[in-house]
Input
Amino acid sequence: MDYALLGKRIRDERLLLRLTIEQLAEKVNKSTNYIGQIERCDGKPSLETIVDIANALGTTVDSLLRDSLPAAQRDGADQELLSLFASLDEKGKAFLLDVVKRYVYYYGK
Output
C-alpha cells in the first residue's frame, strides 16, 4: 500500500470538506497528531482507522485507496470527478450534469 498517496487523498478529501485536522480527529476519535502523521505518511493507519476516516469524510475506503491500485491509477480522473461530484448538493449536481451534456452534444463523445 502506498501510504503517501493514502495520506494525500485523506488530506485532499478533508480540505474539500473544509475540515481542520482537529475536526477530523474528533470525528474519528484519534489525536490531531496521529491524523497529521497519517496525512504526512509518518504513520500507518490500521484498516479500522481507514474505515473510520472514510466514514467521517463521507467517502469510501475504495476512494481513499484508489491511488494504491494500478488499474485505478489509469482511471484517476474518472474517480476524482466522481468524488467531487458526490460532494456537491443537488443544485450543483444538476448544474454540472447540464454542462457535461452540453459538452457531449457540441463536441461529441
Remarks:
- The chain has a mean pLDDT of 87.
- The radius of gyration is 16 Å.
